[in-house]
Amino acid sequence: MLLRVVAPFVATSLLGGMTAAFVVGRIEAGPQPPPVGRPTVVTFRSESDRIHVAGSGSCLPIVEHLLDHFEERARVVLHPSIGSRGALRALERGAIDVGLVSRRMELPSAGRWRWIGLARVEVVFAAHPSVQLEAVGVDDLVAFYQGPGRGMLRGRRALALLREAGDSGLVAIASALPRLGAALERARAEPDAIVLLTDAEMRDALLDMPGAVGPLDIGAVRLQAPSLRVLRVRDAPAIHKELAVVLPARAHPVADRFVRFLQSERARALMRGAGYEPWEGP
Hints:
By secondary structure, this protein is α/β, with parallel strands linked by helices. It folds into two domains: 9-118 and 243-278, Periplasmic binding protein-like II (D-Maltodextrin-Binding Protein, domain 2, 3-Layer(aba) Sandwich), CATH 3.40.190; 121-234, Periplasmic binding protein-like II (D-Maltodextrin-Binding Protein, domain 2, 3-Layer(aba) Sandwich). It has nine helices and 16 strands. Strands 4, 5, 6, 7, 8, 11, 12, 13, 14, 15 and 16 form an eleven-stranded mixed sheet that branches. A three-stranded mixed sheet has the order 2-1-3, with helices on one face. A two-stranded antiparallel sheet has the order 9-10.
């Protein structure tokens, strides 16, 4: 059995000479696995010339890509995933300057924060290059994850990978395809379930494990793992989730300039080229 878990993140913020320590865990909705080992220590320092950006792992591939084209790249520190809810908690405590979220969320302390849409990205079922399939049906996926043919995908042995409860991609799948969403939820309860807790873990497992199949954003595939196969799901709607940034109403000047860049035509063209749909809504 392979069950990956993420220990809490302990973040430290130095603000005006005061040190604020707090725990930012994997706090997405739903039951969480018990913490193991020692917490990973992440230090965020509020420095006058640099900003700190952290949040949902779903946002990291495109934000990292866009940062490569931001003229003040050296002044932006991009941290590993702490989740959407972790981003809001870190913002509340002043540990970061810009939060990354992959779902619509009620912001704490309304009026203190700005929610700015970034993009929509399609959630797909990706597979290790050894999986010799181009397309599957919804019934195929339901049986693969939770059914009499569990572990078999269209007659081929494959390895089912899952995300944790409350993952934004799973929420989007369940909303568009409730029967498949229910199968994924039941599969996660199996004693031999392989559950990955970040987008990066899912990407790496799909790359490293022959026969592996699991949900991942198309942008992560194109930007970080182009050798993966993307399985077309027949007779099913495209499944999307929303990516956004959150920052204080009165933000660090570099944070303001960075967010303006994210909304620029240059950034929008880069998003389209990477498989993302630039935000068009309010």
